[in-house]
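The protein record passed on below.

***
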Amino acid sequence: MDHKLFNFQMNNWRLVELALFIAILFAMWQMIGDRIVAFVNSQNEIRVAERAQLPKGGVVARESRNPMLWIPYKWRNSHNDSPLLLPDITPIIGEDPTITKQYPNMEQWVIDTISQPGRTLLRINTITANIGEGPLHIVGADVSENGTHQSVYQRIWRSDDTFIDQEAGRFVYHEGHNHIHFDNYAQYMLRLHDADGEVVAQGNKIGFCLTDVILADQEIFDASTVRISLPPMECGDREQGINAGYSDYYGHRLAEQWIDITNLPWGEYQLQIVVDPNNLILESNEENNRLSMPFIYTAETTAERQFNELP
């Protein structure tokens, strides 16, 4: 046999074997690569959280779900023309009888004169629904130098399982709730006469632990093409969010779910909640973040709605 022909055939077989070997490695990487990435990211998060000495929290490595790490994240996403699936967060009163029955809303306000002696607090319930096409998904990023908070990115998904991240505020540990909150998520206030009247009392801009609590719209949920897999009704210390069609609920017994009305005279007011008052979240509709309802403050209504137990 011609040695040149033999060597040529052997070299071709070696190339075929090499190609098969690479194909097998690629297939294995596709099957287990995401687990490897998740493990590596988890270890990084643990180390960063320990260095920051946060009571809760850590860092989420901002990587794509695609386990092919050699494809740069920014390149993949900057060359993608698929539309973004934006959330749309809006407060709701709870016209749905099921929601109202299970979770009292703003109209079920109570007057608290016992939890903080000498003060009168208007305690309210809050439901915020995501009626957009995509989830409201936020992830923790860099921890501050003093370890008191960490920056937050809003993760905005596309239908092809890619996403972009943009800065959206910060996570802060809330001692009253004993977990991480997305800071400045909502604000409560009382106005004179109507929804645009003078503000006569208001609460602080408060943070929420964002999570799926109530299915607010089945059709929106069924139509959603991207859903984040986070434990419902649990406060994530690295990732939080509300899926499309779901809503979050905060009851009046929780810390800071109030407006201090200690010196407020009897009268008729507008009770108002504003979601995302600092406009940190990118949404498909920025015009439906405010909700108002009449608040009749008299001796009779106060007696009827007296808060009679400590939170």
